[in-house]
Amino acid sequence: EEELQAWRDRIKRLLNEQNAVLVAHYYTDPLIQALAEETGGCVSDSLEMARFGAEHSADTLVVAGVKFMGETAKILTPNKRVLMPTLEATCSLDLGCPPDEFSEFCDQHSDRTVVVYANTSAAVKARADWVVTSSIALDVVDHLDAQGEKILWAPDKHLGGYVQRETGADVLLWDGSCIVHEEFKAKGVEDLKALYPDAVVLVHPESPAAVVALADVVGSTSQIINAAKTRPEKRFIVATDQGIFYKMQQECPDKELMVAPTAGAGATCRSCANCPWMAMNSLENLCAVLERGDNEIFVDAELGRKAMIPLQRMLDFRM
Ligand code: CIZ
Ligand code: SF4
Questions:
Q1: Which of 29, 63, 81, 246 has the most CB atoms less than 10 A away?
Q2: What pLDDT is stored for residue 267 in this prediction?
Q3: Which atom of ligand 2 lies closest to the CA of 181?
């Protein structure tokens, strides 16, 4: 505990000295989320992280999350210094969508409007017409569908499938998935629901369709937190990364939150509702990056300018 306090004090001092602000995702270590709150930074989903970073006056953004979040920050604010506690933290969606293959796929379907999830590399975004996060995916695709556009969606097939079912749009899917959400099991959720029939099921749409089908509310991380806060029920089964419980419990201290069951519950579960890449962020490497100023994020200027167009469309989009 004393050691933790020492880390926190050092990080606070360094943030101050460098006019830096900490931007953390809901899936990171609760210690990092708490520190972001205490220091006037931001804890949120990837859409709000992008907005916050772009609007904040700090010279340096320290992005605690995964690589695409740091890249997005750099693309939106090329004149700011963007640091990340680790450069190793990637995402199975980003990894599963190599820019060259993706570009070829787009060429083969040039009649389609290209909509990519925020969880992608700068190069993939640069090839897209639109970038979306899970919180606005439905609205954006609805809007495009109403204009008669056919969609090419990448990379998450579960989120894309959900968007397709909900909007009825013509959506061609890239075959990618999130290793965390993919592990949630319908059978496990049904069994838990049988034990707690009063529980409300909250599901992130990166989960498999069978799990989404059991949901009372399907939504992004922010929407899931909001549902727990505003629904009158007391018990919730939550299918998303466990990191979200920090903020959720803070927002609704009187409610009981249960993580939805994953595949192995031990033996075969690789990620157990906890993203291994998000977990690479720690107070220790956060402190180190501020001290050394390494792990700076750079995005090729030409690529950045191209990726900025669909990203700006996302930020400007209002229904
Ligand atoms: O699964 C993720 O990485 C999410 C939910 C990102 C986001 O949009 O906040
Ligand atoms: Fe990627 Fe899934 Fe981790 Fe989010 S939780 S960063 S989608 S692997």
A1: 63
A2: 45
A3: 2
β partners of residue 288: none
**Ligand 2, atom 6, residue with closest C-alpha:** 91
Residue-wise pLDDT tens digits, 23-56 = 999 999 999 999 999 999 999 999 899 999 999 9
Q: For all residues of the chain together, what is the average pLDDT?
A: 95
**Residue of minimum CA distance from atom 2 in ligand 2:** 178
What pLDDT is stored for residue 264 in this prediction?
Answer: 55
Q: Are 304 and 122 in contact (CB under 8 A)?
A: yes
Tell me, using a 6 A CB cutoff, whether residue 91 lines ligand 2.
yes
Sheet of 171-173, strand order: 130-132, 113-117, 151-154, 171-173
How many whole angstroms from 270 Cα to the centroid of ligand 1?
Answer: 18
Q: How far apart are CA 168 and CA 198, in angstroms?
A: 31
User: What count of other Cβ atoms lies within 10 Å of the Cβ of residue 194?
Assistant: 8
User: What CA–CA distance (Å, rounded) separates 199 from 226?
Assistant: 16
- Which mutation among 72, 244, 278, 280 tests ligand 2's pocket best, with the greatest number of atoms within 8 A of CB? 278
CA angle 255, 257, 258 (to 5 degrees): 155
Q: State how far the Cα of 184 lies from the Cα of 253, in Å rounded to an integer.
A: 25
* Tokens at 147, concatenated: 């204009």
**Global pTM exceeds 0.90:** yes
The tokens for 23 are 């931007």
CA separation, residue 40 to residues 7, 44, 238 (Å): 17, 13, 28
Which of 288, 275, 283 is closest to 69 using CA atoms? 275
How many angstroms separate the Cα of 176 from the Cα of each of 27, 120, 136?
20, 11, 19
Q: Which atom of ligand 1 is nearest to the CA of 221?
A: 5
